[in-house]
Design a protein that fits this description.
The protein is α/β, with parallel strands linked by helices. About 35% of the residues lie in helices and about 20% in strands. The chain has eleven helices and 14 strands. The strands form three sheets. Strands 1, 2, 3, 4, 6, 7, 8, 9 and 10 form a nine-stranded mixed sheet that branches. A three-stranded mixed sheet has the order 12-13-14, with no helix packed on it. Strands 5-11 form a two-stranded antiparallel ribbon. Helix 3 packs across helix 6 and helix 6 packs across helix 7.
Length: about 325
C-alpha cells in the first residue's frame, strides 16, 4: 500500500488589500478584519484546512506576523512561522516554504484572504491535487467561472492540461473566455511536492532559487535577513514557474470561491449573508447610523474613524487609484 505523503498547508499573508481601502490598512490588512460573520479571512483559511493537513506554515512579514500569531494562538494552533523582512512576491515566499520543508512533503499553498464555500467539493479538489502532486506534478486550482469577471486571471485548459495562463482581461475578452467554455478563473492556489517546486524554480528562474536559498540558509528562527532578501528578484510564481513548467496540471474546482479583492465581491458576500441593503441596492459598511441614499443605486458607503469612501459597486476596481494617490498625498491614511 502506497504511503500517504505528509501534507503542509502554506498560508501566504502578504498584501494590503488596496482595493478595500479604507477598511484595509497596512496596519490591519483585509485578511485580518473580522468582517465575515465575526471571523477574519485568515482565521477561516486556517480553519478550513486544519483537518486536511499535518502541519500549518505561515509566510508573512514583519508588519503582520503578530496579527497571524494572535489568531493562531487564540485557536491553539501550532504552526511554523516564516517572517519576510521585505516583500519579494510569491515565487520567493513559496521558495522559503519549500526550503523549510522535506522535499517529499506536499505543500498546499493558498492566500489568506479568500472566501470558499461547498466544503465537500473543496475537500475533493484538495484530495485530487494532493494525489497529482504525489506523482510529481505541479497543480493549480482553476475555478469554474460564474460570470465574465475582469478582476481575475484565467487558465485556458484542455482537460487537466494547462494550455495558457491569461492576465486579467477586459470585458470583451472575459466574455469571449466564458463563451469558449475551456477557461477557468485562476485561484492563486497551488499544490506540489516541495522538492519538485524547487527543481522547477532552479530550472526556470535560477536567480530566484539561488538567492532565496542563500537568504533561507541565513535565517534566524524563521526570520529572514533584509539585505539578503533585497537581492532576490521580486517575481510571482506564475511568471517564475507556472507559465514555463512542463509539469503543470489543473484541478477543475467546483467549490464557490471569491478572493474578496474588491468592494463588489465584499458586497455580494455580505448580501448573501444577510447584510442590509436598501430597496435600490445601496449598502453601508462600518456604521450602524441611519443613512439615506437619495437618487442613488448600487452605491456603497464605507465608514471608518479616519476616512470614508463612497463608490458605485461597478467601479470597485478603481479604489486602487485612490490608494495609489494617497501613497503620495496622505500616506498616514493608509496606516
Amino acid at each position: 500500500m502506497k504511503k500517504q505523503p505528509a501534507v503542509t498547508h502554506v498560508i501566504l499573508t502578504g498584501g494590503v488589500g488596496s482595493r478595500l481601502w479604507p477598511l484595509s490598512r497596512k496596519s490591519q490588512p483585509k485578511q485580518y478584519l473580522d468582517l465575515f460573520e465575526g471571523k477574519s479571512l485568515f482565521a477561516m483559511t486556517v480553519e478550513r484546512n486544519r483537518t486536511l493537513v499535518d502541519q500549518i506554515m505561515v509566510v508573512g512579514n514583519s508588519d503582520n506576523c503578530h496579527l497571524s500569531r494572535h489568531v493562531l494562538e487564540k485557536s491553539n494552533t501550532p504552526y511554523i512561522d516564516i517572517v519576510e523582512s521585505t516583500p519579494r512576491n510569491t515565487a520567493a515566499a513559496i521558495a522559503f516554504a519549500a526550503l523549510a520543508s522535506d522535499p517529499e512533503t506536499v505543500l498546499i499553498v493558498t492566500p489568506s484572504d479568500h472566501i470558499i464555500g461547498d466544503m465537500e467539493h473543496y475537500n475533493k479538489a484538495i484530495q485530487e491535487a494532493v494525489e497529482k502532486a504525489s506523482n510529481g506534478f505541479i497543480v493549480t486550482f482553476g475555478i469554474i467561472p460564474t460570470k465574465p469577471e475582469t478582476g481575475y486571471g484565467y487558465i485556458e485548459r484542455k482537460g487537466e492540461d494547462v494550455v495558457s495562463f491569461r492576465e486579467k482581461p477586459n470585458q470583451v475578452s472575459a466574455r469571449d473566455f466564458i463563451a469558449r467554455g475551456n477557461f477557468l478563473w485562476n485561484s492563486g492556489m497551488f499544490c506540489f511536492k516541495a522538492g519538485v517546486f524547487l527543481e522547477e524554480l532552479k530550472t526556470y528562474n535560477p536567480e530566484v532559487y539561488e538567492k532565496s536559498k542563500i537568504a533561507w540558509d541565513n535565517n534566524s528562527n524563521g526570520n529572514l535577513d533584509l539585505a539578503l532578501s533585497m537581492d532576490i528578484p521580486s517575481i510571482s510564481i506564475d511568471y517564475a514557474v507556472m507559465e514555463r513548467s512542463k509539469k503543470i496540471k489543473v484541478v477543475v474546482s467546483e467549490f464557490s470561491w471569491s478572493d474578496l479583492g474588491s468592494f463588489e465581491s465584499v458586497y455580494d458576500y455580505l448580501v448573501a449573508t444577510g447584510h442590509p441593503v436598501d430597496p435600490n441596492g445601496n449598502m453601508v459598511i462600518g456604521n450602524t447610523n441611519y443613512t439615506a441614499f437619495v437618487g442613488m443605486k448600487n452605491t456603497i458607503f464605507v465608514y471608518t474613524d479616519t476616512a470614508n469612501l463612497i463608490l458605485q459597486k461597478n467601479s470597485s476596481q478603481d479604489v486602487k487609484n485612490v490608494y495609489n494617490a494617497l501613497e503620495q498625498e496622505k500616506p498616514e491614511l493608509l496606516q
